[in-house]
Amino acid sequence: MAKKTVTKKTVTKKKAPSKFMAPLKVSKDLEVVVGKGPMPRTEVTKKLWVYIKRKKLQDDENRRNINPDAALAKVFGSKKSINMFKMTKLISKHLS
After folding, report:
1. pTM here?
2. Could you tell me if 72 and 79 are in contact, meaning their C-beta atoms sit under 8 angstroms apart?
3. For 21-92, CATH number?
4. Which of 72, 79, 85, 92 is deepest in the core (most CB within 10 A)?
């Protein structure tokens, strides 16, 4: 007796784009740092880190802290050093 091979058909469903990846409008202050929008939140974060590293704004002693320059101070609302974990909360005010 010969064995029959059973194949399963894989059904791929198209998923709706994630809200996380939806392009958002960028405020004028944030636009100076990351460029023109609209862009997803993930892209804003990537470009923000490129800006921080290019301008060498990370604190030398505690790399978790960011020392904002004039452009980032407008976005963060303060010239004080800011923890990188609080940065995304401050950035969200500039995305709509």
Report:
1. 0.78
2. no
3. 1.10.245.10
4. 72
In 3D space, the residue among 16, 33, 22, 32 whose CA is nearest the CA of residue 96 turns out to be 22
pLDDT tens for 43-53 read 999 999 999 99
Cα angle for residues 69, 35, 30 (degrees, 5° grid): 50
What kind and span of H or E run contains 65? strand 65-66
How far apart are alpha carbons 15 and 64 in whole angstroms?
36
Instruction: Please provide the size of the chain in residues.
Output: 96
How far apart (Å, rounded) are the C-alpha atoms in residues 51 and 28? 16
pLDDT in tens, 73-95: 999 999 999 999 999 899 999 99
CA gap 52, 74 in Å, rounded: 14
From 52, 34, 31, select the one nearest 42 (Cα to Cα): 34
